[in-house]
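Project standup — Tuesday

K.O.: blocked on the structure for the chain from last sprint. Re-posting the sequence here as requested.
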Amino acid sequence: MAIVEEQVVSGILVSVDEADVEQQVFENIKELSKMSTVEQQITTEEQETSEVTVEDPLVLVDSENSVKTVVSEEQSIIDLVPVLKRDLGKETTVNYGESLLLSCEFSCKDRVNSTWFKDGVALTGVKYIQTIGNSTVSLTINECVMEDSGDYQLQLTNDFGKITSSVTVNVKTLAPYFAQPLGNDIREQSAIFETTVAGIPLPQVFWYRDDAKLEECEKYRMEFSDNGQVSLTISNVNCSDILCQYSCKAVSIIGEVQVSAKLQLQGLLSVECCVLLMTIQVFQAHSHVWNVQKCLLPTSEFCSS
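H.V.: unblocked you, prediction finished:
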């Protein structure tokens, strides 16, 4: 027979069955046992998770929560700092008008951003071609001019560090000059003037007959090669061509230079040319303007009008 006790709880008389109390105690003990088991399982799972986290890579994120780099336990953070393997050098020279390539090599296991500067100002525009790969970065300067001379600097940066490399660029120029005298020769009925011009940049060439500038036409043919060899071919040479002086002028942004010559002809004198030569000599003798020199004129095929 169960024993019933009466207790006053909050002013109310309550009957308590001892059997019910024992049952409640038993249920509480079972519940506590279950909670202990769950806690042990949670603790075990946390330990396992902790072990996995140590073995797995660590994901680094930036301020915008975008994944950037994965770093394992074996990988040192030093690998994420950009390091130069080959710098830009100290100084380099490029000829006026040519393109220049500046490049260096680096190593880094993180993403790297590159920025180029000239005399402290960041470079922009289509004149400058900037490229960057996994281990190389380069800058191409197209058609260098004097204004491209200066101090260039490359900056490689990421969240773990920054490195720089600098180089001084010199744009070379050279005033135009003739590497050989202006010579000429007769080939069949044509006269050819030839010479070699040089300079940095390679100058433009203009031809003159006395003071008149010559233009390309059927009688005058002009040639210019990349190595500086220039020529003027005069077709159907006649006596009027023989009496003139021909000049070659080389012009660049650095300056200009000119060389002149007359046709040096050899051959038999025709009747027409002899009459012309005597007339010229008589005029020279009376005017004292021209300096008469002994010369030989070609055969009549050159003296025909």
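K.O.: great, moving the ticket to review. The chain has four helices and 22 strands. The chain has a mean pLDDT of 76.
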